[in-house]
Amino acid sequence: PEIIKTKEIRKVYRMGTEEVKALKSVSMCVNRGEYVAFMGPSGSGKSTLMNIIGCLDTPSSGQYILNSKDVSDMSEDELAEIRNKEIGFVFQTFNLLPRATCLENVALPLIYAGYNKTDREEKAFLSLKSVGLDDRIHHKPNELSGGQRQRVAIARALVNDPSIILADEPTGNLDSKTSYEIMDLFHVLHQKGNTIIMVTHEDDIAHYAHRIIRLRDGLIESDERNPNPTVVD
Ligand code: ADP
Ligand code: ADP
């Protein structure tokens, strides 16, 4: 079953009298449970496409169907609700609140979802446990290593049980050993049935994904199954 379907998505940015065609016509589908890497040179449209898939932005034309709902023309408020329910975001820079503990950071999305404090803490604890950080719940981000911070961010992305995990250069700020640990975690999430889409410009990171989509100049240049994904021991 398709979870993401884009039909001839175009995105034009207007800057004064100038137009930038960031996406020219992008059509693709992702099924539930797939693990996809987006690659492509800087400026090829990866962030623009990720922003649309993540409901942070809407296409200038074309259709985007997420979980059978047409989100192409939704209002800001409707998009915010879909985002909170359907998407777990993981960023290169972790985007954690520095003054909040791990537990508070992970519980944050649950405030908007309307859970009470006890339920929020219970769910946040279980999510931190699932990434192996149940012994760090009262630590603040600056008391953790980079890899641990990214695992907190992943726990936060998972806490609402989203349909899709969107990761933008998730290993971009990590050394290679820590990067592979994060890829091990993605591997486990994929095996549990999560749908994962990540942007990376590192070949060895992309090679963990089971499908690699390359963008160039606002178009899909290639879309290939990875017959031999890097296996985690
Ligand atoms: P954004 O956060 O707007 O998506 P980019 O993805 O363009 O920014 O860049 C994020 C970081 O990755 C930057 O430090 C950039 O220099 C680096 N980077 C982006 N694309 C490539 C690439 N194809 N090869 C090497 N480094 C890249
Ligand atoms: P990538 O993530 O692959 O580096 P982007 O999606 O960030 O590519 O950018 C695609 C093109 O759109 C680039 O030419 C970029 O300069 C342009 N672009 C991206 N965001 C904006 C914006 N907010 N306003 C104007 N142009 C933009």
TrEMBL record:
<dbReference type="GO" id="GO:0005524">
    <property type="term" value="F:ATP binding"/>
</dbReference>
<dbReference type="InterPro" id="IPR017871">
    <property type="entry name" value="ABC_transporter-like_CS"/>
</dbReference>
<dbReference type="InterPro" id="IPR017911">
    <property type="entry name" value="MacB-like_ATP-bd"/>
</dbReference>
<dbReference type="InterPro" id="IPR003593">
    <property type="entry name" value="AAA+_ATPase"/>
</dbReference>
<comment type="similarity">
    <text>Belongs to the ABC transporter superfamily. Macrolide exporter (TC 3.A.1.122) family.</text>
</comment>
<keyword id="KW-1278">Translocase</keyword>
<dbReference type="GO" id="GO:0016887">
    <property type="term" value="F:ATP hydrolysis activity"/>
</dbReference>
<keyword id="KW-0067">ATP-binding</keyword>
<dbReference type="GO" id="GO:0098796">
    <property type="term" value="C:membrane protein complex"/>
</dbReference>
<keyword id="KW-0813">Transport</keyword>
<dbReference type="Pfam" id="PF00005">
    <property type="entry name" value="ABC_tran"/>
</dbReference>
<feature type="domain" description="ABC transporter">
    <location>
        <begin position="4"/>
        <end position="233"/>
    </location>
</feature>
<protein>
    <submittedName>
        <fullName>ABC transporter related protein</fullName>
    </submittedName>
</protein>
<dbReference type="InterPro" id="IPR027417">
    <property type="entry name" value="P-loop_NTPase"/>
</dbReference>
<dbReference type="GO" id="GO:0022857">
    <property type="term" value="F:transmembrane transporter activity"/>
</dbReference>
<dbReference type="InterPro" id="IPR003439">
    <property type="entry name" value="ABC_transporter-like_ATP-bd"/>
</dbReference>
<keyword id="KW-0547">Nucleotide-binding</keyword>
